[in-house]
UniProtKB/TrEMBL annotation:
GO terms for molecular function: beta-galactosidase activity; carbohydrate binding. This is beta-galactosidase. Residues 18-175 form the Beta galactosidase small chain/ domain. One of its GO terms (biological process) is lactose catabolic process. Its EC number is 3.2.1.23. It catalyses: Hydrolysis of terminal non-reducing beta-D-galactose residues in beta-D-galactosides. Keywords: Glycosidase, Hydrolase. One of its GO terms (cellular component) is beta-galactosidase complex. InterPro entries: B-gal_small/dom_5 (IPR004199), Bact_Beta-galactosidase (IPR050347), Gal_mutarotase_sf_dom (IPR011013), GH-type_carb-bd (IPR014718). The keyword Disulfide bond does not apply.
Length: 175
């Protein structure tokens, strides 16, 4: 029998991908386009799903030169993404999106050393904007997040590009 203590357990849901290991459990939502649960050692660390964000507080210079007015489209765009495409990679190999009925081919005892989920998100700017966010998880529970935005001609200046982690308690450090 294979030693699964150092492996990542994959749970294929109808609308989610679950990843579980020693002391952690993560859930990614296909419908929301991001991570919706980050549980470490029994404590839930997410209050909302993780999504790209494009807005920041305005500075005095921003107010003076009209930046807030010109770039205000980004404030709303970041709140309502459309999930355009989802790709799941298990052990660096792309698999068919494991939603019903495809997910029925998997058991509840699937173990791997790594998994990656990529979300292509579309934003309702004019013209439309796409951002690809990938989450790569290893058996230790380490998460590598990668955000790709290639820019788009004709959209206003981008105030900020980041990932929003809304947590139920204040975080004091990240590693």
């Amino acid at each position: 029998m294979e030693n699964t203590a150092t492996k990542l357990r994959v749970i294929y849901g109808d609308c989610t991908l679950g990843l579980k290991g020693q002391g952690f459990h993560y859930i990614f939502s296909y419908t929301r386009g991001g991570m919706e649960s980050l549980n470490k050692n029994g404590k839930e660390w997410l209050y909302r799903e993780t999504l790209p964000t494009f807005w920041r507080a305005l500075t005095d210079n921003d107010r003076g030169n009209g930046f807030g007015y010109r770039s205000s489209v980004w404030l709303g765009a970041g709140k309502y993404p459309k999930v355009k495409q989802i790709q799941v990679r298990i052990e660096d190999a792309a698999i068919e999106l494991p939603i019903a009925p495809v997910n029925n081919q998997y058991s509840n005892t699937e173990y791997v050393s790594s998994a990656e989920i990529l979300f292509t998100l579309e934003y309702n700017t004019v013209p439309k904007t796409e951002v690809v966010v990938s989450y790569r998880i290893n058996a230790l529970g380490e998460i590598k997040v990668n955000v790709v935005y290639h820019g788009q001609k004709g959209v206003p200046e981008l105030p900020l590009l980041g990932i929003r982690f809304i947590m139920p308690t204040q975080a004091t450090s990240f590693t």
